[in-house]
């Protein structure tokens, strides 16, 4: 029996302080009072970006100029089986004053420290993924460090030994069918059943990765390890849609 999936888009809106926006679901909707990322159902004939722009304007009165596809998630509620597409919206990609047009509430939240509840049940992994810093720097000997809204995240991995240790973060597995389509320069390694690391050789590999991630999105972050010659590309990778970048750094003290 085929299951009808409800196609939903939702926006991870960021502000200049690196916080992200959650809002409560209004009275009259399923899971009223639960917290979510603003968004809603994609209408027939509408693109995902157009749906996101319409929903964010209807719910919060803000305008979205652009949004980067991020993670995806399918989830079966009693009321619907949903296919959720999350988009990252950077501070320069949205404008307007936030208004609660549907009598909902909103809150700016820090990654890793949520003080609103209850959350929509489908969103747990998404909230955990947000606690991953976008960029971590370090070396294999000393581990990699980055900042999220709460503080420092540290992790270490030994690609050869296929072992990952980490603190204050979560690195679950991505879908293998997407991994098989990637332009492997060095094949991806599953690390202790906890995540996937991928080490591209050229910027074009990363562009191909991002095209594949847009076509076949994954439900957890893909961590891209950048060798030294690709480090200066890190600033453009976020726009391309890379989830998490790990770079070698001189100073790891
Ligand atoms: N907007 C949003 N919906 C989410 C999130 N997580 C999650 O599981 N959902 C689910 C809840 C709902 O079943 C579905 C969104 O549908 P909705 O009823 O809110 O959509 P809508 O705003 O278009 O509502 P309506 O016009 O039909 O009243 O997706 C999230 O973070 N944001």
TrEMBL record:
| This protein's UniProt keywords | DNA damage, DNA repair, DNA replication, Hydrolase, Magnesium, Metal-binding, Mutator protein
Q: What class of enzyme is it?
A: hydrolase
Q: Outline the extent of the Nudix hydrolase domain.
A: 4-134
**Cofactors demanded by this protein:** Mg(2+)
Q: Which domain of life is it from?
A: Bacteria
Q: Which Pfam families match?
A: NUDIX
| EC number annotated for this UniProt entry | 3.6.1.55
**Signal peptide (residue range):** none
- Family matches, as Gene3D superfamilies: Nucleoside Triphosphate Pyrophosphohydrolase
Q: Which CDD domains match?
A: NUDIX_MutT_NudA_like
**Presence of keyword Nucleus:** no
Catalysed reaction equations from the record = 8-oxo-GTP + H2O = 8-oxo-GMP + diphosphate + H(+); 8-oxo-dGTP + H2O = 8-oxo-dGMP + diphosphate + H(+)
Which family is this sequence assigned to? Belongs to the Nudix hydrolase family.
What is this protein's record name? 8-oxo-dGTP diphosphatase
């Amino acid at each position: 029996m085929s299951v009808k999936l409800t196609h939903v888009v939702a926006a991870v809106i960021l502000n200049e302080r690196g916080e992200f926006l959650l809002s409560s679901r209004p009275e009259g909707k399923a899971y009223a009072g639960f917290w979510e990322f603003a968004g809603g159902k994609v209408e027939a004939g509408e693109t995902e970006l157009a749906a996101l722009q319409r929903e964010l304007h209807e719910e919060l009165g803000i305008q979205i100029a652009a949004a980067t596809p991020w993670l995806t998630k399918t989830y079966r509620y009693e009321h619907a089986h949903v296919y959720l597409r999350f988009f990252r919206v950077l501070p320069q990609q949205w404008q307007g004053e936030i208004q609660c047009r549907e009598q909902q509430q909103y809150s700016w939240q820090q990654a890793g420290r949520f003080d609103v509840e209850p959350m929509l049940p489908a969103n747990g992994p998404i909230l955990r993924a947000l606690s991953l810093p976008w960029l971590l720097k370090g070396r294999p000997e000393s581990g990699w460090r980055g900042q999220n809204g709460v503080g420092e995240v540290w992790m270490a991995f030994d690609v050869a030994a296929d072992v990952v240790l980490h603190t204050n973060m979560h690195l679950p597995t991505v879908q293998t069918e997407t991994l098989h389509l990637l332009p492997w320069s060095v094949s991806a390694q599953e690390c202790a059943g906890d995540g996937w690391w991928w080490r591209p050789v050229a910027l074009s590999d990363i562009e191909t990765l991002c095209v594949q991630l847009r076509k076949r999105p994954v439900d957890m972050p893909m961590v891209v390890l950048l060798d030294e010659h690709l480090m200066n590309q890190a600033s453009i990778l976020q726009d391309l849609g890379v989830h998490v970048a790990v770079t070698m750094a001189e100073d790891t003290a």
